[in-house]
Design brief:
Elements: E1 7-10, H1 14-25, E2 32-36, H2 46-49, H3 51-54, H4 69-72, E3 76-79, E4 83-87, E5 92-95, E6 100-102, E7 105-108, E8 112-114, E9 127-129, H5 133-145, E10 148-152, H6 156-167, E11 171-176, H7 183-200, E12 204-207, E13 211-217, E14 220-226, E15 231-233, E16 236-239, E17 243-245, H8 248-252, E18 261-263, E19 274-276, E20 281-285, E21 290-292, H9 297-311, E22 323-328, E23 331-337, E24 346-352, E25 357-364, E26 367-374, H10 380-389, H11 395-398
Parallel strand pairs: 1-2, 1-7, 2-3, 7-19, 9-16, 10-11, 10-16, 11-12, 18-20
Antiparallel strand pairs: 4-5, 5-6, 8-17, 13-14, 14-15, 20-21, 22-23, 23-26, 24-25, 25-26
């Protein structure tokens, strides 16, 4: 039997589309199949909780490529198709409809799924999650029609949807189990700034909140009851309590899975012809010396380029530092680097935190582990250079806004 020469990409989001783009750009001219479980062609997710949700960006801007791009580049885009099983030995996948496809190389860019809230009433009408384009469109309608919204979870999705609702004039209560929003990500020093941002814009923010149930009338949400017995009225509830990587077919196929599909710095899994990128990949990071699964846009944008080149047997590795951004009200932020919740010994601020125009640096032993610029622009590259240098810096010089960051570089 002739050997299958097709490259198969499971997952038609940003990561899958960028992998297909890179394969063609790098000269791969064999059969290329891109499978997506949604009916929409590949699109980017950040606008779903930012510009598109706010109504400041039109729908066409969310898509990765124009509709004709796939045919023009001989990419066999198959929408509404889900990979249900993988047979690494036979180099085949099985789709949900029972059909089978062979491959020479397989890229898993299957993304993640929102965690469901495990409380009574979570299945009532008016309980919303945000992951897909249709979810964002439903929330646009909620923001037009609701007068009171409760957001459960004060992570990035929770805070961005809260900001969009407040911008639309809706009353918003945010419930968070931790004492402060984003506490695990940013630590208390910077988490307080985001708490103040939202309370300044009229959000009722409740830290240490334990949700007991979502209450309803005639099958529709009317409130959220907390463990202390208090009841918060709501016309709609938005849940943002994290996501789970879509690893089931990979795990069932015997691939190494641990908080995502475990891959090396080339994005290669425990099987030499299967790769993974984006939310689903727990990738070894050569600069940080550890495996890391990053649930952010920049990984979905850049990791597939490395994976695609590795599928073509090029000598590459993925060593970009984690990067993410947010827009909430009049605050724009970029974060570069990585730090564990207890992995730093001080935070140095440069600029005016009260005016929300500053850079925050997380340090350990004088080394910069990560930097976050808030309403200060064109500094990502020097922040990245400070982190990758691994050199200790003088905290007083780091805090001096009149000293260019480039002068701190070794």
């Amino acid at each position: 039997m002739a050997q299958n020469t097709a490259f198969l990409i499971a997952g038609a989001g940003l990561a899958g589309a960028k992998a297909a783009e890179t394969l063609r750009a790098e000269g791969f001219d064999g059969p290329l199949v891109l499978l997506g479980d949604e009916r929409e062609r590949p699109y980017e997710r950040p606008p779903l909780s930012k510009g598109y949700l706010l109504g400041t960006s039109e729908k066409e801007k969310v898509y990765v490529h124009p509709p004709q791009w796939y045919a023009e580049h001989d990419v066999d885009l198959r929408l509404g198709r889900t990979v249900s099983a993988i047979d690494p030995a036979a180099h085949e996948v099985t789709l949900a409809d029972g059909s089978r496809l062979g491959y020479a190389k397989l890229l898993l860019a299957t993304g993640s799924t929102p965690r469901l809230l495990p409380v009574p009433g979570a299945d009532l009408d008016g309980v919303h999650y945000l992951r897909r384009l249709a979810d964002s469109e439903r929330l646009q309608e909620v923001n037009r029609s609701a007068s009171r919204i409760v957001v459960i979870g004060a992570g990035w999705i929770g805070l961005e949807t809260a900001a969009a609702a407040r911008t639309a004039g809706v009353e918003v209560t945010v419930l968070e189990a931790a004492p402060l929003p984003l506490l695990r990500v940013l630590g208390p020093e910077v988490a307080r700034i985001f708490a103040t941002l939202h309370t300044d814009h009229g959000v009722e923010l409740r830290g240490g909140a334990q949700v007991a149930e979502i209450t309803g009338t005639n099958g529709a949400v009317d409130g959220v009851r907390l463990a202390d017995g208090s009841l918060i009225g709501a016309d709609a509830v938005i849940v943002g309590v994290g996501i789970t990587p879509n690893t089931e077919p990979a795990a069932a196929a015997g691939l190494k899975v641990d908080n995502g599909i475990v891959v090396d710095e080339r994005l290669r899994s425990s099987h030499p012809d299967i790769f993974a990128a984006g939310d689903v990949a727990n990738a070894y990071h050569p600069l940080l010396g550890r495996h890391l699964r990053v649930e952010h846009w920049a990984n979905a944008l850049h990791q597939p380029k490395t994976a695609a080149k590795a599928m073509l047997d090029q000598d590459v590795r993925y060593d970009r530092l984690p990067y993410f951004f947010t827009d909430q009200y009049d605050l724009g932020m970029e974060y570069t680097g990585y730090v564990e919740p207890e992995g730093y010994d001080r935070v140095v601020f440069r600029g005016d935190t009260d005016a929300r125009e500053f850079i925050a640096f997380w340090l350990s032993g004088g080394r910069v582990l990560a930097g976050m610029n808030v309403n200060v622009w064109d500094v990502v590259e020097p922040i990245r250079a400070l982190v990758t240098s691994g050199q200790a810096v003088d905290p007083e010089r780091l805090a001096d806004p009149d000293l260019p960051l480039t002068e701190l570089l070794p």
